[in-house]
Amino acid sequence: MARTAEEVVAEAVRELAPAAGANGFVPLVAEGKAPREAIAGFALEQHHIITSDRRSFHQLALRTAEEPKTGPFFAALAQGESVALERLGALAEAFGVDDAALRAYEPRAGCQAYPAYAAWLALHAEPADVVIALTVNFAAWGGYCADLRTALREHYGCPAEACRFLDFFAEPDPSAAEQGLSAVQAGLDAGRVTERLAHRYGRLLQAYELMFWNTLAQV
To answer: What DSSP letter does each residue of 111-144 carry, written as one string?
Structure first.
């Protein structure tokens, strides 16, 4: 019996979830031990990541423009990155980042491995497999953002407006998940899903995201 999108995605999320304690940065913030400079670094790195990922999602949307389920999924992700970028400004400002600091900042290699790989996926991978890999990663990323939001409010006096960037990822629109499942199901129906590759892409995205967090932990 053919597997459903729900089964494929649930298995990938379960098998590729990051290990407890793998993220070295969020626990530091949760304890109020991360310097404000490191949180400013988070915002600065995110500026570069979001602008890169938005282009990657646009590329995937172009590649799937004729696919009624998959194309809109990637187009919505690209639009979401624009919303996130707008919200990021308040968080950056709360930790002393201005336009001059943004222009002068040099991104860290460990933080930018994720968007570099996402760009590779946008060019080379089967889009249906990318949907699965991204869904796996978004599950972990959203949880980290929720923890970070709570910690910034409790230990760093972060105002509500500054946390709206984290709110966006910590409280995703349920319709986005349904859209992703529809895209995966369309890929399954068309025989375009290779679960081995989807898991590879998801595993590497998870590893590169942990590299992002653990690079920040060294600031």
So the answer is: HHHHHHHHHHHHHHS-HHHHHHHHHHHHHHHHHH
